[in-house]
Amino acid sequence: xxxxxxxLPVETVIVSxxxxxxxxxxxxxxxxxxxxxxxxxxxxxxxQSKKCVLCAHNAWGSKITTNGKKGKRCRxxxxxxxxxxxxKQNLSLVVPATSLRALKDYEKSVTSRGEELSNVVTKIDVVxxxxxxxxxxRVTRFLQVGELDELKKxxxxxxxxxxxxxxxxxx
Length: 171
Description:
Layout: E1 10-24, E2 30-34, E3 63-64, E4 70-71, E5 74-84, E6 89-96, H1 100-111, E7 120-129, E8 132-142, H2 147-154
Antiparallel strand pairs: 1-2, 1-5, 1-7, 3-4, 5-6, 7-8
């Protein structure tokens, strides 16, 4: 089940994440996408560059927002796979570019304690700041020994392109 911001806050376990990108024209037509945030996906019919980092659409100012600010035409995001402890259900959440730093900082704060994101229950919430909707992340509690394995066994099977793993690192 894909979560939208209206369903937040939620307390969940982040079990995997995939960094990705997508690029559209001003008219909303799909130009290019990347499944790893590094190179265009193999099924992209109009790759804009050999590497995302070199792409002109990845540069600040390649798009001007509706409020007149510089942005990037190519949108970065992270696709998270989540386990819901209370509901025994797999969830998916798209973390937009505006919240990627918060996610990376959160991961760093958890891993600096010697833990992995998949070993903690995370509260994900929404805040409005400077006319932008941002996600926040904080530790609610640490999982007990064997609790993650039990969650994986009891969760409803979800059909997703993103597999459940024992953890991940955001690059």
